[in-house]
Automatic annotation (TrEMBL):
One of its GO terms (molecular function) is hydrolase activity. It comes from Nocardiopsis suaedae. Residues 1-19 have a biased composition (Low complexity). Keywords: Hydrolase. This is Alpha/beta hydrolase.
């Protein structure tokens, strides 16, 4: 017979309530499992991959593969542009989009490339290189280092699922334009920098092996942004600037934080080789920023190929079609070379 259930906290002066028919209560040593939380984050490492589309001959596209879930925020996804022939694992380029850390689409290389058919990522896949285009938390959702953390988690996801995708996790080149170039450089440089600073520190989960990095017109030294641009273009104490919104504070008001989020400050001898492309006429991100990164890498003993492109503005505005193709060819050639593939995409952009 089951025990009666008290209607109030235990008190010897209160009479017991009548027994209610029903199943006996579970013994004290049995824990009843909580119902699953429908809003709990999913495991991105076990989710099924999206179905493949075929946007161009010899290319498969897996659009919207989720690689990370953040509490109370949208899940993060990437697109995968894959060579159709993956009987042997293919090398990988990881492209990070720009947009001032506050906007942008993961599949957009900029206005100059939107008319291309096939598009740039399909073309690279036709060259035998897979392309992953991850998104990241924008500055309206989270401040630094959230954006680099998201790119790094994408690299971990790519290694974990490389066998399913058919890519070689030990041949990966990071590539980004504008703010995405900043994040690509940060993700490429941070591991070697941190290992040099704390060689006995804890190991982070392994991502793909970065064998090179390409930056297009990227901010690289937020400590010097104010001196590299006229005050009419950039005020280092403006809390509303794109840089301040990403950092969570104006660069001039927290130089330590600005340094920690500057690729030029993370250069070390263990950095992978860099290809740095920047238009000489860029007024949004001064060409001096490219020079600062190249100088820092060279001083650290790392390889840096700096190419300042005549006539090029930000996002290659004002650049001739011939020169634009030169920048593209230089990038493809570098990616293929760092991936260990023979040949390449041409001589590329002039130095």
């Amino acid at each position: 017979m089951s025990r009666s259930t008290p209607s109030t906290p235990s008190d010897s002066t209160v009479s017991a309530a009548p027994t209610v028919p029903g199943p006996a209560p579970a013994p004290d040593d049995i824990r009843v499992a909580s119902p699953p939380d429908p809003l709990a984050p999913e495991d991105a490492l076990t989710l099924p991959l999206p179905p493949a589309a075929r946007p161009a001959p010899g290319v498969e596209l897996l659009r919207g593969a989720h690689f990370a879930f953040r509490p109370r925020l949208r899940p993060l996804a990437m697109d995968l542009w894959l060579p159709e022939d993956r009987r042997r694992p293919v090398p990988l380029a990881v492209f990070v989009h720009g947009g001032g850390w506050r906007a942008g689409r993961r599949d957009d290389l900029g206005e100059r490339f939107r008319p291309w058919d096939p598009g740039p990522f399909a073309r690279l896949a036709q060259e035998g290189v897979a392309v992953a285009c991850p998104e990241y938390r924008l500055s309206g959702e989270a401040v630094a280092p959230a954006q680099v953390e998201d790119v790094t988690e994408a690299l971990v996801w790519l290694r974990a699922r490389s066998g399913e995708i058919g890519v070689d996790p030990d041949r990966a080149v990071l590539w980004g334009e504008s703010a995405g170039g900043h994040l690509a450089a940060m993700a490429a440089l941070a591991p070697a920098h941190h290992h040099a600073s704390a060689p006995t520190g804890p190991e982070d989960p392994a991502g793909v092996t970065v064998t090179g990095c390409v930056t297009w017109y990227a901010p690289t030294d937020l400590r010097s942004f104010g001196t590299d641009h006229p005050r009419s273009r950039f005020d280092p104490r403006d809390p509303g600037s794109s840089e301040a919104r990403m950092l969570g504070v104006a660069p001039a008001d927290d130089t330590k934080r600005a340094r920690a989020n500057s690729p030029a400050a993370l250069a070390s001898a263990g950095a992978p080789p860099f290809l740095i492309l920047h238009g000489r006429e860029d007024t949004s991100v001064a060409p001096k920023q490219a020079e600062r990164l190249a100088d820092a890498l060279g001083a650290a003993g790392a390889q840096a190929d700096l190419r300042l492109v005549d006539g090029g503005g930000h996002r290659w505005e004002g650049l001739s079609e011939e020169a634009l193709l030169g920048c593209w060819d230089a990038t493809v050639h570098f990616i293929r070379a760092r991936a260990g593939l023979d040949g390449g995409g041409g001589e590329g952009a002039p130095k």
